[in-house]
Amino acid sequence: MATDELAQKLQRRLLLEESGPEPAPGGEEAAAGWGAGPAGQEEEESRSSMLASADSELGAKLSRRQDINDGTARPRQAKVFNPYTEFKEFSRRQIKDMEQMFRLYDSGKDGYIDLMELKLMMEKLGAPQTHLGLKNMIKEVDEDFDGKLSFREFLLIFHKAAAGELEEDSGLMTLAKLSEIDVSTEGVKGAKNFFEAKVQALSSASKFEAEIKAEQDERKREEEEKKHRRAAFRELKSAFSQ
């Protein structure tokens, strides 16, 4: 695919170089004076700009391809993914539940669910799939064509299910439905009524802020409890030391 694109760019570059200004009507004298006027100069500058742009783009692509072949290419910076802003139809609690489920089945701890991990997931959910069925499940949401599910692609399953974009008898719909029924047995709490509630969209930012505040209050409470336990332990230790 990349080779075809480079070939097209090279062909375009050659055509630009081979095509010269067409002779103007009026014979050689008129042709000799072509380009002398403002319009001719502007067209020539435009042509030169196109050639320079093509050269720069081709050079960059060829250099990148050579670096990849040599194994020296630097990985391109991936776009930062924020599930809370991209999937606004889900609450923070729901996203955290899905993240916990994703991590549960990401047995390799590499940030992806591959074919074998998806196979185990479906078996644990009580809906084993064929090898081809598993590949089709991944293919349906595999936006980067790497043959495995990232967390974003995993969230897409629930996004598509809630939006009615999945076939009723598809493997992904089966996964989504079984998740709401059986996922609590896998340790993911709060997701049991996920689809029963039809994933109600957050209508205002106040609810989002309230969830953040609740999480912050929970952390503060836990810190206070730790402080009290440490103080009680010091007192007990001091009493035994006397």
Task: Describe the protein in words.
Helix 1 runs antiparallel to helix 3. The longest helix is centred in the last third of the chain and has 37 residues. With 242 residues, the chain is mainly alpha-helical. The chain has ten helices and no strands. It is 64% helix and 0% strand.
Summary tags:
single chain; 242 residues; mainly alpha
User: How many individual helices?
Assistant: 10
- Structural class based on helices, strands and sheet pairing: mainly alpha
Taking the alpha carbons of the first and last residues, their distance comes to 79 Å
Q: Evaluate the radius of gyration.
A: 30 Å
Helix and strand string, N-terminal first?
HHHHHHHHHH
Helix residue percentage: 55-70%
How many extended strands? 0
Mean model confidence by pLDDT: 74
Q: Which ranges are low-confidence, i.e. pLDDT below 50, for 5 or more consecutive residues?
A: 27-35, 181-194, 196-205
The largest sheet is:
none
- Rough outline: extended
The percentage of residues in β strands lies in under 5%
